[in-house]
């Protein structure tokens, strides 16, 4: 959007008018209308609000100054440039024409002028509380910048959880203007309900996780968000180490490294293996005592997903196990056929004491089944997809997965 040198961009003025200027080289109109004139071509927006107006502009003119002229009902009493008070000599007022002219630097900036109050309105930096089921878990501190409001802070979470985030305010929140980053995960898709915004997917939170909120609305005088609620909070289930290292005769074994070079369709494989993201490594011979001579290692918790598919022979209950190695607890989201199975929204893989460079670093753990926190999987005969997504920036090494029939229906 641009405006030609010396041309007027016109808007009808009403007492509480709030309009965005979107036009190119509009000719001058009648005196009953409110023009915006620039000394240079560029992109401009103008918004009237009670007692003042705001002009946003982007002009590429090097070190040159830019003059902007616009209609006002009376002499402005103050001027802000990018939120900071500017010298009054930047502003001139033609009482006969009721027109103000400001001299400002080139670039991308916001100018605000006001004529009712003697000083600019005070914008108190908001403090937005964050509440969980047991009470407040943190506060994110807000700030105002050109064209948006932001807020950031860390939470106190006793243990890693998944949660839906609900943003509540005193007015109606526009979903398209709000984004919230939780750790390294950005949430920008919301349900709108009763004036609140509810995240369409759950986020993973742990102690010290940083929340960064952005509301892309210019000229906010106060925060449109009063508080953030953590709802549908679910703690992680634990994959339990098994004492045995023997492989059950009827187990379906899936090599972890098949995400890159899996077998074609066979008795129990569908040929559907893969990865989304690149934070994992496969290097045959790099680790000790691996089944098949290889494994997936350095599978980081940064949103990278790995998936494997298996064909189970009959309807029934199945245990899901994995042979893993990691020095420190790791956490993963897991889905079966694209949906979280009971207990698998977030799974903790306990430390095995090493990364698989010694035979006793490897440990078979039960992710779902009679020995695990999560119940057995109820699967129908046919193909099923197992997907694991890394979260919370930790690493896990995986040798293989096992799908073990339990002999129950």
What are the low-pLDDT stretches, counting only 5+ consecutive residues below 50? 1-34
Q: Tell me, what's the shape?
A: elongated
Instruction: Determine the fraction of residues in helical runs and give it as a percent range.
Output: under 10%
* Rg of Cα set: 30 Å
Task: Describe the 3D structure.
The protein is mainly β and 409 residues long. It contains 1 helix and 35 strands. The strands form 5 sheets. Strands 11, 12, 13, 14, 15, 16, 17, 18, 19, 20 and 21 form an 11-stranded mixed β-sheet that branches. Strands 23, 24, 26, 27, 29, 32, 33 and 35 form an 8-stranded antiparallel β-sheet that branches. A 6-stranded mixed β-sheet has the order 22-31-30-34-28-25.
List the helices and strands and how they pair.
Blueprint: E1 8-12, E2 33-38, E3 43-49, E4 52-59, E5 65-71, E6 78-81, E7 84-85, E8 91-94, E9 99-105, E10 107-114, E11 127-132, E12 135-145, E13 148-154, E14 161-168, E15 178-182, E16 185-187, E17 190-193, E18 196-199, E19 203-205, E20 210-215, E21 227-235, E22 237-238, E23 240-241, E24 252-255, H1 258-261, E25 274-276, E26 281-282, E27 296-300, E28 305-312, E29 316-325, E30 330-336, E31 347-349, E32 363-368, E33 377-379, E34 382-390, E35 395-405
Parallel strand pairs: 11-21, 22-31
Antiparallel strand pairs: 1-2, 2-5, 3-4, 4-10, 5-9, 6-7, 6-10, 8-9, 11-12, 12-13, 13-20, 14-18, 14-19, 14-21, 15-16, 15-20, 17-18, 23-32, 24-35, 25-28, 26-27, 27-35, 28-34, 29-32, 29-33, 29-35, 30-31, 30-34
Salient structural properties:
409 residues; mainly beta; 11-stranded mixed β-sheet; 8-stranded antiparallel β-sheet; 1 helix; 35 strands; 1% helix; elongated; disordered N terminus
């Amino acid at each position: 959007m641009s405006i030609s040198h010396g041309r007027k961009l016109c808007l009808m003025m009403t007492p509480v008018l709030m309009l965005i200027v979107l036009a190119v080289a509009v000719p001058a109109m009648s005196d009953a209308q409110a023009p915006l004139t620039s000394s240079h071509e560029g992109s401009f927006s103008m918004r009237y609000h009670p007692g003042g107006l705001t002009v946003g502009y982007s002009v590429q003119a090097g070190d040159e100054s830019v003059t902007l002229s616009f209609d006002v009902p009376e002499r402005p009493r103050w001027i802000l440039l990018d939120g900071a008070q500017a010298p009054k000599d930047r502003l001139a007022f033609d009482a006969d024409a009721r027109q103000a002219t400001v001299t400002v630097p080139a670039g991308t900036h916001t100018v605000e002028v006001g004529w009712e109050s003697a000083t600019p309105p005070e914008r108190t930096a908001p403090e937005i509380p964050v509440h969980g089921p047991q009470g407040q878990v943190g506060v994110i501190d807000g700030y105002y910048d050109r064209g948006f409001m932001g807020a950031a802070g860390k939470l106190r979470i006793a243990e890693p959880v998944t949660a839906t985030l609900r943003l509540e305010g005193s007015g109606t929140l526009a979903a398209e203007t709000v984004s919230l980053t939780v750790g390294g995960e950005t949430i920008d898709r919301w349900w709108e309900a009763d004036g609140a915004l509810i995240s369409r997917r759950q986020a993973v939170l742990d102690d010290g996780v940083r929340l960064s909120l952005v509301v892309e609305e210019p000229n906010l005088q106060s925060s449109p968000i009063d508080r953030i609620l953590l709802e549908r909070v679910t703690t992680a289930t634990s994959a339990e180490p098994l004492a045995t290292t023997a492989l059950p005769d009827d187990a379906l074994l899936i090599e972890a490294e098949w995400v890159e070079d899996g077998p074609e369709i066979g008795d129990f494989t569908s040929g559907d293996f893969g990865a989304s993201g690149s934070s994992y490594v496969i290097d045959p011979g790099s680790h000790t005592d691996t089944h098949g001579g290889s494994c997936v290692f350095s599978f980081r918790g940064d949103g990278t997903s790995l998936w494997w598919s298996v064909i189970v022979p009959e309807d029934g209950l199945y245990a899901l196990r994995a042979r893993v190695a990691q020095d420190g607890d790791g956490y993963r989201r897991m889905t079966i056929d694209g949906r979280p199975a009971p207990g698998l929204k977030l799974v903790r893989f306990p430390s095995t004491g090493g990364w698989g460079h010694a035979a006793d670093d490897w440990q078979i753990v039960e992710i779902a089944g009679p020995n695990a926190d999560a119940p057995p999987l109820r699967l129908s005969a046919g193909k099923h997809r197992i997907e694991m997504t890394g979260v919370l920036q930790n690493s896990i090494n995986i040798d293989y997965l096992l799908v073990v029939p339990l002999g129950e229906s």
